[in-house]
Design brief:
Layout (H helix, E strand, L loop, with lengths): L2 H5 L2 H24 L6 H19 L4 H26 L8
Helix pairs in contact: 2-3, 2-4, 3-4
Length: 96
């Protein structure tokens, strides 16, 4: 594996790390507000991105594996965005 291929995995790793941090912050917010535990979606999204990283790292760049990598990455990011919207949309709500 080339050094550039390893460096290309830094971006998905940082997204997974950010999702873990959001999950931990959302868990604390959910405990205070007694919200439903939707924060688990952040950890699932991070695991999907971690699986995408493993697919990219352990396989050859064939068309099928790149489809799996991109699909897992897109699914993880989408799930993270939906969970973030659910927990943190009150920050964007208009107040009277």
């Amino acid at each position: 594996m080339l050094m550039l291929d390893v460096l290309a995995l830094i971006a998905p790793m940082s997204i997974a790390f950010a999702l873990i941090i959001l999950g931990l912050l959302s868990r604390k917010l959910g405990r205070v507000t007694h919200a439903r535990p939707y924060y688990g979606a952040f950890f699932v999204a991070s695991a999907l991105i971690g699986a995408a990283i493993l697919v990219r790292w352990l396989t050859e760049p064939l068309e099928l594996w790149m489809f799996v990598y991109n699909g897992l990455l897109a699914l993880g990011v989408t799930l993270g965005v939906l969970a973030a919207w659910r927990y943190w949309s009150w920050l964007l709500a208009e107040r009277d």
